[in-house]
Amino acid sequence: MKTVLISLMTMLGVAVGSAGVTATSLLGDLSPEVGVSYNNLSTSGGLGIRDESVAYSLATSIPLEGVDVHLALDLHDVDGGWERDWSVAFSRPVEVFGQKLGLEVFYNNVDSSFGPWDEVGVAAVFDGGFADVTASFWKELGSNAPYGVELIVSRDFDTPVENLTVTPFVAVNVAEEYNGVEAGVSATYDWNGVSLFLKGSYNDNDLDGSDPYSLDNDWHFGGGVSYKF
Predict the structure, then answer these.
(1) What CA–CA distances, in Å, run from 183 to 75, 86, 113, 167, 204?
(2) What is the bridge-based pairing of β-strands 47-50 and 179-191?
(3) What does the pLDDT read at residue 206?
(4) Mapping DSSP to helix (H, G, I), strand (E, B) and coil, where does residue 79 land?
(5) Cβ-based burial of 48 (10 A; exposed 0-12, middle 13-18, buried ≥19)
(6) Per-residue pLDDT tens over the stretch 39-65
(7) What is the pLDDT of residues 130-171, one digit of tens each?
(8) CB 203 within 8 A of CB 43
(9) What is the Cα–Cα distance from 20 to 129, expressed in whole angstroms?
(10) CATH class for the domain made up of 3-221
(11) What is the pTM of this model?
(12) What's the mean pLDDT in 201-215?
C-alpha cells in the first residue's frame, strides 16, 4: 500500500532475483495503479479503524514464475495527521478436488487511529458462477494476539450503462474477541484505465460501545477515482 517505496522495491529485488526475472521484463510486467478516495468511516476485519478521511493509494501487481506479487500503500489524511496502511500478498491459482480456486497469502500493516497492528493470513477465492466467495483466516502478530475468519459473498451485475458494474456484497467476521457484519453495494465505472467507484454499506459488531473499534449500526459511504497505467 515509500521510504516505504524504497523498502518495497528492495523486497521486490530479492523476490525477483530468486525467480530469475530480469529488471527489463519486470518493469514491462508492472501494472501500477494510483487513486484518491474519501470515506466517512474505514473498517478492517469487521472493526472500525478510523473516522472521516481522504486516502491516497498506490498499488501494483507483478507476475513472477507461478505466482503474482501484490503491493499496496494507502496514506490517509485524517484529523490531526496521517495514517499509513500497507500490504504484501502472493497469489496463485490452485485446484482442489477438481475445483479451481484463487489462493492468496498476505501480510497487512494497519495504522488504525486507535492503535496499529500487523496481521498475516491466507485466503481462498471461489467463483461459483452465481456469486464469488472469499474465505480468509487471519492472525494478528504478537503473543496472545487475536485471530479470526472472514467470509465474503459478492456478485457483479452488468447494467444498461456500458462499463458500469454494480456489486452487492455481504461480509461476516467471526473472531476470537468479537463478531462483525458488513452488508452493502458498490458501483464501478471503468473507462480507458480510469475507474470511478462508490460504496455504501451497513456495519455492526458486538464489541462494547466503549471500545474504540466498535461498530453500532453504522453506515459507511465512500467514493473515489483510480487510474491503472
Answers:
(1) 25, 24, 23, 11, 9
(2) unpaired
(3) 96
(4) coil
(5) buried
(6) 999 999 999 999 999 999 999 999 988
(7) 899 999 999 999 888 899 999 999 999 999 999 999 999 999
(8) yes
(9) 36
(10) mainly beta
(11) 0.83
(12) 95
The candidate with the shortest Cα–Cα distance to 13, out of 25, 24, 23, is 23
The answer to whether the CB of 199 falls within 8 A of the CB of 182 is no
Q: What is the per-residue burial (b if ≥16 Cβ within 10 Å, else e) of 153-171? A: bbeeeeeeeeeebebebeb
Residue whose cell numbers read 497469489: 91
Q: What are the C-alpha distances in Å from 56 to residues 5, 22, 33, 82, 206?
A: 14, 30, 11, 11, 31
Long-range contacts made by residues 20-25, C-beta under 8 angstroms, separation at least 24? 20/65, 21/64, 21/65
Question: Residue 213 corresponds to which amino acid?
Answer: Y
pLDDT at residue 187 tops 70: yes
Consecutive H or E run containing 68 = strand 68-78
Q: What is the pLDDT of residues 65-123, one digit of tens each?
A: 889 999 999 999 998 799 999 999 999 999 888 888 999 999 999 999 999 999 999 99
Residue 199 bridge partners (DSSP): 186, 222
Q: What is the residue extent of each domain of the chain? A: 3-221
- Which residue bears the cell 461498530? 215
8, with CB counted inside 10 A (0-12, 13-18, 19+), is: buried
Residue recorded with cell 493509494: 57
In this structure, the strands spanning 33-39 and 179-191 are unpaired
SS3 3: helix
The candidate with the shortest Cα–Cα distance to 53, out of 80, 28, 35, is 80
Which of 44, 112, 58 minimizes the C-alpha distance to 84?
112
Residue type, 225: V
